[in-house]
Amino acid sequence: MITQKLENSIKEKDQNNILLKMNNITKYYPGIIALDDVTFSVKKGEIHGVIGENGAGKSTLCNIVTGIIRPDKGKIYWKNKEIHFSQPKDALNIGIRMVYQERNLIPFLTGAQNICLGDEELKWFINDEQAIYDRACKISEQLGINVVLNERVKYLSSSVRQMIEIIRAFIKQPELLILDEPTSSLTEGDIKVLFEVIRNIKKEGVTIIFISHKLHEVFDLTDNITIFRNGKSVFSSKTSDLDRNECIKYMINRDLKNAYPKVIDYSVPEKVLEVKNLQALPEVKDISFYIKKGELLGLYGLVGSGRTETAEIIYGLREKDKGEILYNKKPFNNNTTEKSIKEGLLLLPEDRKEHAIFDIFNIKQNISIPVIKTKLSGILGMINFKKEKEYAKHIADSPSLRLKYRSINQSLSTLSGGNKQKVIIGRWLEIENTTLFIMDEPTKGIDVGTKYEIYVLARELAKKGVAVLFICSELPELLGISDRLYVYRSGYIARELKREEFSEEEVLKYALA
Amino acid sequence: MELSKTNNKDHYIKAHVLEGKTWYKDYLLVIVIAVLLIVFTVLNPQFVGIDNIFSILNFASLTGIIALGMTIIMIISGIDLSGAVIANLSAIISVYLVTKGINNLLIILTISILVAIVASLINSILVVYIKIPSFIVTIATSAVFQGFCRSIAFGGAGVIYPKKLPHGFVFLGTHYLGKLIPMPVIIFIVTVFIMIIIIELSPLGRKMYAVGSNPEVSRHVGIEVNKVQIYGFLLAGLLYGIAGIIMSSQYAAAMVGMSDGYLFPAVISILLGMIFLSLKFANIKGTFISAILLSILVNGFTMINLPFYWKNVVQGLLLISVVIVLSTGKRESV
Known about the structure:
The structure holds two protein chains of two kinds. Chain A is α/β, with parallel strands linked by helices. In chain A, 34% of the residues lie in helices and 25% in strands. In chain A, the strands form five sheets. Chain A has a six-stranded mixed beta sheet with strand order 6-9-10-3-11-12, with helices on both faces. Chain A has a six-stranded mixed beta sheet with strand order 18-19-20-15-21-22, with helices on both faces. By secondary structure, chain B is mainly alpha-helical. Chain B has a domain at 49-262. In chain B, the strands form two sheets. In chain B, strands 1-4 form a two-stranded antiparallel sheet. Chain B has a two-stranded antiparallel sheet with strand order 2-3. In chain B, α4 (50-76) runs parallel beside α9 and α4 packs across α10 (203-213). Chain B is globular, with a radius of gyration of 22 Å.
């Protein structure tokens, strides 16, 4: 009897301890079941990690918790009471706040103005800027975040913006804070600071849901983990009871024997590209490097160290101030992207949304656009639609890409991040005489499984004799796949490392110093 | 390589069933036209007479050709509010040349169309190179072009009315082929076909959509953004020029402001056309069908003796309903 009572009281205590509980949540989208009978609960005061591949349903879950979308089935309990959100404001009112993956700040307002947006102090019917600034400062001090708040957001780095987003969530003390991939555009140093901030927030009694692709971060930070796969929550446990490999197994439903494919160096001495003393202020100060035929060359550096800018100059999107670019041993100056593509120099841009995807085009059209005139037009110069379809299908189904899609005429907005990236890569796969393929953060925001496929694809390209320039901020990844490595530091090349010299400490020493 | 095997298949198949049918949304414009035809015919059986049908098409052709030009600009950059004024300019130039004693029809046509192309080229330079939004550029240049029209036609207090027109001048605007099909209708249909080929079937058209959708992405995939945009403006200018010629030929005269009435219906045609096939972007077929729909409205209202101003009310309501249709539906994404 006594034991039963005790058990009951423990149960009750557990019940009271649960802040948010979602029972049997189901959400359909045209063509996809985003959430399939998901049950999910978060205890008061914990940091709860949510992991899963892209398209596993994490974002949909958040959108339901924050009241942006309504579930088709299922019940949500907040402190053991059933609740219904008819609009996002309802969720805000009970203390649920979300910091989004895409930054939602207004660029021409200052940090403080962004933080207090919609809740400004007034003085004679006008915004009291001093009071707004003071309040923002007070919140940031409370959280232990030290950032500039009186500068327009558009002049601030992405890590500072991320911090401002977090401060904004505290304009009204939240009870539940959701962080969606908060580290995706941050540097190692910034991530450390962010984690310190998150731990401080936890001490204040705020419950946190932490969504991330990066397993080591989730293990580092969270108390409990829930793993999503294909719209289902497949596993939930204490973080301390899980290990990395087990986690991956649940995420992708298979064993991950090796994180990276075998490194086989296919490079030959012939230099495909040589950059000498390249300068384009303010980002690129003095860059010299070369890449050989068949080589998989890594470029490591912190966000803002000039890697993307270098790639854009080579590809013809940006002008240089000084320096020399030799491509196939010939000077390659004042070029346009059109010329680059013609000469077999391709770029996979970092920012998929802004630089790679045509929203109004479907999969087929997004793949065919670079060759639409040269390869796919026929009578009267019109597009040969049959040929275009075959071309796109051929690429999408090719063994190196294996795109998951319903129809080749499907819109890209219904694809997961990894599959979107595959479409963009596919766009470049059948370009003739490809000699140099620059991949700028090709695995950013992509699930583990697709990441591996991209590594394999990069190696396959190298095997065919293409020089692959792999720009990446994930050091383990770069060390795992590249033949040689350059370390960028604020516009300079700080170090060149051969494969046998690879070590995390060595790279970070030069990248951060 | 083992890794890429996932058992997602059933997940996609199950979900596929959920997709709803949207044919009635895709063909909403055609349905509206059918309903209007039936209603007007019931109210006045003469409405479906062959003569009246061609008169509807005739009326649609001027709005239609101007709207087609504006559709191109809509695809590549934004709204063009100067289309009607450029047509007016071209009309005035053509008649002005006649009053100056030029009798060669070919020269008159070439010069007046060239003027329209140059006018559109001026727009394009401001939009493409100086990067001013086309909305602002075309408001400004319409004022300038209107000023030109006035300065040319000022001697006739805004109207140029040549006493003697060269042989064949009125042919384009008023001749009936086989005593049945008005020339403007033929020109309109031919224009539509050519535009479908260029805009919807050719690589250039695909690039125009690409540029309009996202110029940055277009640069990344090697499209010469400026060149494509300028081609678009030139093509639009050509269409405005053709519309201007038809106009002066129909009136056998030209006056300042003769094309003002076409701007609003043309804009509505483009916006209405965007719901065709649920495309949600400007397209040639949609603009064509919508221009005819508007023409049916105007004609039908006259046929059933409704006051003409009801036409404006209905046009306005149509526009609002289009915006509603456009803003509902598939917006969520995973």
